[in-house]
Design a protein that fits this description.
By secondary structure, the protein is α+β, with helices and mostly antiparallel strands. It is built from three helices and 22 strands. Among the domains are: 87 residues, conserved putative lor/sdh protein from methanococcus maripaludis s2 fold, CATH 2.40.420.20; 102 residues, no CATH class. The longest helix is centred in the N-terminal third of the chain and has 53 residues. The chain is rod-shaped.
Length: 378
């Protein structure tokens, strides 16, 4: 191939490449025009749909609201209770003292925890002096009685003087009185159980000098147990016989239910309290006298109360109120104040006597930062 021919081929290839590039640009321009037309059509459709949605009042976007938690309230059983501390005691518990003038403890016949019968001898005081005096008095009485009987027989036969007869009669009666007194004093040297029960305490010892003012024994009848408690006078109008009571014995981790059996009408002037008593079953051997007991006395009950957590009740210048979730026309919720009248409060719950109704949605979490009318979500 000569030089001229090669030159022609070269320029031909350049021309062909130029044509190809020009055709490629034309295709892209055509595609761009096409896409722009589609974009215009879509933009028109979007604008039209937006106009239609704006005109339709039944379709609106819910406004953004504050996130909260709500509780729908319904009637439930509610009660209020007074909690006081008491102790277990025997239904019949007595302190035993010696009678008479007292004396030295000679013998103790029982032990703590021992069951005793009524009238059983618990201890004996030294009665040696009384025994000696009794022996002397009995001897004198025997002698005087012999003289009296002889003088009486003579007097009945009209022998002897009346003065001698009456004198011996008086001596005999006086000695009989002395003997009776000494026997009574000797009997009082025996300390006996006034009731049947268990000996719970023996504060005296053998050889100790005791007097009528010293407690010698404590006997408790555990066949019938009771719980006793001193309650503040502020509750005097709220507790009555028959009120339900739950008793907790902390040492045993045990609960017992019962009712108030006695409610004193006397206020102790020293500590301003009154006594409350209830009986409990005595067939449980682990329950012992003087155990600590916590009494929960139910002084108010409402089987159909509306209750809310105590912390949701707020106060403003108008009074107490609660924030509830109230629906709007567009199916959203806003916070609304509802002014309420509260009742009793117990264990973190407050009774609502008026202002709320069944089904109300009470805002329980997030209410602190809310204002009335704010939109909420839950």
């Amino acid at each position: 191939m000569n030089m001229r021919s090669m030159q022609k081929v070269k320029w031909g290839m350049v021309l062909l490449l130029t044509l190809l590039i020009a055709c490629g640009k034309t295709d892209k321009q055509a595609e761009l025009v096409k896409l722009r037309k589609q974009q215009a059509i879509l933009a028109e459709k979007i604008k039209q749909l937006e106009s239609e949605l704006a005109a339709d009042t039944s379709i609106k976007q819910a406004p953004k609201g504050i996130r909260v938690s709500v509780t729908e309230i319904h009637p439930s059983a509610f009660f209020h209770a007074i909690e006081v501390q008491g102790k277990v005691d025997g239904d019949n518990s007595v302190n035993v003292f010696c009678e008479g003038a007292g004396g030295i403890v000679e013998e103790i016949y029982v032990q703590e925890g021992q069951y005793v019968k009524k009238g059983q001898t618990l201890a004996k005081l030294d009665d040696a002096i009384y025994q000696t005096q009794l022996k002397t008095a009995l001897s004198s009485l025997e002698y005087v009685t012999t003289l009296y009987n002889k003088q009486k027989a003579l007097w009945e036969q009209k022998i002897g003087s009346e003065v001698q007869y009456l004198n011996l009669k008086n001596q005999k009666e006086s000695l009989e009185g002395q003997v009776a007194t000494l026997k009574e004093q000797i009997s009082k040297c025996r300390i006996v159980a006034p009731i049947a029960g268990t000996v719970e305490d023996i504060p005296i010892k053998k050889g100790q000098m005791v007097s009528p003012a010293i407690i010698c024994f404590r006997v408790i009848d555990l066949s019938s147990l009771k719980i006793v408690a001193d309650v503040s006078e502020s509750y005097s109008t709220r507790i009555k016989v028959g009120d339900k009571v739950t008793v907790l014995l902390p040492d045993l981790n045990k609960e017992i239910t019962g009712k108030v059996d006695f409610c004193s009408r006397y206020i102790n002037p020293v500590n301003r309290t009154f006594n409350v008593t209830l009986r409990i079953p005595s067939n449980d051997p682990v329950i012992k006298a003087n155990m600590i007991a916590v009494l929960r006395i139910v002084d108010y009950q409402n089987p159909t109360a509306l209750v809310v957590p105590v912390n949701v009740v707020q106060t403003d210048q108008k009074g107490k109120y609660i924030l509830v979730a109230e629906p709007t026309a567009d199916n959203s919720y806003v916070a609304r104040k509802k002014y309420v009248e509260t009742g009793e409060t117990y264990k973190g719950l407050t009774e609502i006597r008026s202002g709320l109704k069944e089904g109300d949605k009470v805002i329980t979490i997030g209410f602190q930062e809310l204002e009335e009318g704010q939109f909420i979500n839950f």
